[in-house]
Amino acid sequence: MKPEDIFKKNIKTIRKLLLSFVLVFLMLIGGLFFFIRNETTKNTTIEAIESSDYVEISKEDDFDKIENGIHVATGFVEGDGLMLVVQNCTSCHSAKLVTQNRMSKEKWLATIRWMQESQNLWDLGVNEAPILDYLSTYYAPNQIGRRANLTDIDWYELK
Fold this sequence. Notes:
Blueprint: H1 3-50, E1 66-67, E2 70-71, H2 82-89, H3 95-99, H4 105-118, H5 128-138
Antiparallel strand pairs: 1-2
C-alpha cells in the first residue's frame, strides 16, 4: 500500500472516531440538561405546593356544593336520592357513565342487576328504591323524538 493510501485510511478512521466522540458528547450534554430541567421542575412544583400561595382545588365542604340545581362535583341533577346515587354509583365509575344514559325504571333496575351479577356491585338493600326513583326521574329517556315543526317562516317557491 502506498503511504498516501494509508494516510487517507487513517484520516477516515480518525474522522469516524471524532464523529462518534462528538455524538456521545452531545448525548451526554442533552441528558444532563434533561436531568437538570426535571430536577428544577420538580423543585418548583414542590415549592409551589409548600408555599402559602397554594390554593386547594377541592375542599371537603365543597363536595356537597350545588349550583343552579347541579351537584358540582358529579354533574348530577339535584333531587331526592342524589347523595345515595353519588355514594353508590360513583364509588365504582364516573358520574358521566350515569348522566350519558337515559333509561326507564325497569332498564335502570336491569342495569343494576347486571352490575350486581357481573361487576360485583353490592346489594343496595333499602337504598335501591330511592336510587331507582332518582335515576328514573332525572335520567329517564327523552321523549323528544324528531325536531319541532318550524314556525314563523316566510316560505317561497323555488323556480
